[in-house]
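ok here's the first one, seq then struct tokens
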Amino acid sequence: MSSPKNSEIRVRFAPSPTGFLHVGGLRTALFNYLFARKNNGSFVLRIEDTDRKRYIPGAQENLINTFKQMGLDYDEGPVIGGNFGPYIQSERTEHYQKYAQELIDKGAAYYCFCTEKRLNKLRDEARQRNETVMYDGACRNLSQEEVQKKLADNVPHVVRLKIPKEGTTVFYDVVRERVEVENALVDDQVIIKSDGFPTYHLANVVDDHLMKISHVIRGEEWLISVPKHIFMYESLGWKVPKFVHLPLLLNPDKTKLSKRQGDVAVEDYLAKGYLPEALINFVAILGWHAKEDRELYTLDELVKVFSLKRISKSGAVFDVEKLNWMNGWYLRNLSLDYIAEKAKSYFEEAGLDVSNTEKYLKVVDNARNRSATIPEMITHSEMFYNDLEFSDKHKKITNTEVAKRLYEFWIEKLESTDDLSEEFIKMLIKETTEKLGLKGKDLYFPLRLALFGDVHGPDIPMIVDILGREEVIARLNSILHR
């Protein structure tokens, strides 16, 4: 029986259903998950679907499915529910309207009636002056009469925060430690859009409060928004949660990780044959490290060693070569049956017959020791299933009289025995050297070509074991009578 949850620790991952899960999102979700599990807290999944223009049907279901594939189970959220639902923001709009009105009533927010044309002009002028784009506060001090008249006339409007323009906001971030921001540099953020839906800022603050979130663990790009969020918490008389802002993920050239330089969706990597275990391990060490000097961790091991204090301030490079190395390690070290099951659909798609389970498992075991990803395993396996093709260079090696004597000798020996053990094949190789005077390249190149289609590859005993006696004899006969 599991012990009761620590109600003091509640974290959330709050993605937008605007596409596939970004690897940066996976890291954020993972760090929230690890912190919750380490402290016996609750891990909440909340869907932020208030940006209706970017909403993609099916994205929420895809995201939940990706969570399952990655082994990240959440305690509260869509489908499974919980005590603080609903967990989809478009189903919680009455909360946002209520607290937006409370902010207005307290003088912490105001109606803004500026047209899109005027706002675009402000943006263009600021950019021409090389200045940060900020709202100029034109509607900040409208009289109550002006506001009521515009509302009565149904003039399109948004609601903005009324950020104090004097003083500073000081807060503590677990990663960045003490942060101080001049209030004059903080924009009067829109919190309710003209369509009545909240922006990220209001919805997050309201939901984090109502869902009793204790730690807000998210990407560094939101650090600049903290003063706005603190202003809302304090204006509404709410306790401010602890903030943890994770370092940026970077391309190898140290630019921010983006699609322009490669895949960024978790599904892209899963489709390419990367294992969930490797992806979890890889993103865990992007901007975090344990006390001990090691990099390979299972999910359960990560839970035991994870600490927010060991998150780095500096950006973390997403190094695909390292991911390949790590994935290769998991291919070699996870159970053979598990890898075979993961690889099955890739083999079938490549037209390779996996119905002979004994042979298939042997093929997978050979290929996984030579590969970084599952598709790479296919390239190390096709020659065990398909007819072999030879280049002119290879034909010169297999067509010699010496090679033919070699093939005839092996056919004769194999037809007279059922023994294909490693010991027997090694003895046969030794006997070939003694009887035919062949060794080194003169022995291995023509033999490996006849059986495997390449001069390089697995050891001869392994090739023979995978192919089986009949197929070995058939391949030797085929090349002998070509």
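and now the second one, same deal
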Amino acid sequence: MQTSSAVVSPVVIATFLAYLATVFLIGYYAYRRTRDATDYFLGGRSLSPWVAAISAGASDMSGWLLIGLPGYAYVAGLEAIWIAVGLALGIAASWLLVARPLRVFSAALDDALTLPSYLQRRFQQRTPWLGVVSAVFILLFFLLYVSSGLIAGGKLFNTVFQVPYSVAVWVGVLAIVSYTLFGGFLAVSWTDVVQGLLMTAALMIVPLVVSGQLGGVDAGVAALADKNPHLLDPWTDAGGDPLGAIAIISLLGWGLAYFGQPHILARFKAVRSAREIPRAAAFGIGWTVLVFTGAIVVGLTGAVYFEPTLDDGERVFMLLVEALFHPVVAGILLAAILAAIMSTADSQLLVCSAALVEDLFTLVKKEQASAAQAVVLGRWSVSVIAICAALFAMDPDSRVLEVVAYAWAGLGAAFGPALLLSLYWRRMNWQGAAAGIIVGGSTVPIWRQLSGGWFGLYELVPGFFLSLLAVVGVTLATPAPAPAVTRKYDDLKARLRAAG
């Protein structure tokens, strides 16, 4: 089948506009319910288990779920299972190990709204420098992360609507900022649920329809084996060469970053009650396995369906939708890509805004912003950050997955070990936390510049474990935390036990 360019369809355009209108209505409704900073940044800690779970998953996946993972499976076959397994284990571990204690600790620590403010209050730092160091790394890596979403959005609009790439990027900025700006966390969480369900439907429907076109599952597997049997072997690459230890560890290692992703951790803090977190975890883990399976099957069935082979495997989902569905259905399914992009970018903008308002504002003004100031400053921050990210996204040749991998590794290595140990280690002090953040966040860009042998390992893995060593080593080499800090930690653990 020829891989012709997408043709602008009035029906597809109408579907996109209807979807965006729905998103804006949700944002307006949430705007009417937003009264203070807790509402704006954490939705008043009022999310139900299934909303928190789907929202966390949707804000996590970005366009990677419908563009990157199917494209990877299209090119590499079942090798893609390793990254899916690593990420599934990572999200399960974060729900089971982090969600419940973080929900209790952050609420008890004077309603800490952001990761930097949580760390600041966990170690009772009178000076804001621990929070500021955290906020700087968040802004640095999230600026890259948001720009990757805008790159993906620009390429989507450019492919589907054939509008200039730069125009497409600014359209994406307008769509994302509009409801994030006014509704804050409630708008983001509610739209993330809509978008998460839309992404799920797309990843279930497309593989089923393609399998039907191929004559069923058995016929599809046989056809894929005839085309390239190595695509069905998770232990080899597409050329038949065995995957080495570095490759497998790198792919599985993606899951380590979940402990340090502020936009996902925010969902844990916003769950209505700590008692409801096990239910949220079950929803979240189940959703993750479901959509990963669908995304990989999309890539595998696309490898059979398209002949000749596509020049760009990341277009496989879009081209399958274009080839097999009525324009109305195609418009809805293509909106799922936009949903995936928006559901991550909106959450990241909100985290960046919170870091500026809750942490850096404190350093400059030497005081906490009032409730009204926090909401106004938060909205201005969203706009400024989005514009900066759009300027970074203006190069149409940028590789989305490369930018995502960089930002994902940076956040995971910087914050994962410090956060995890802060929840479970009584002896940990602020010096260890700061060392872990700096070492982890710095290792990632340095490791990326190295090559050959073990330097081919994904930078997240060495960054995470060097950060872990830094937290432990510096904590043990410096004085124990003050008695007030350990007493507060004991109180937090008691609250956790009382929460059931």
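notes on #2: The chain has one domain: 10-401. The first helix runs from residue 10 to 33.
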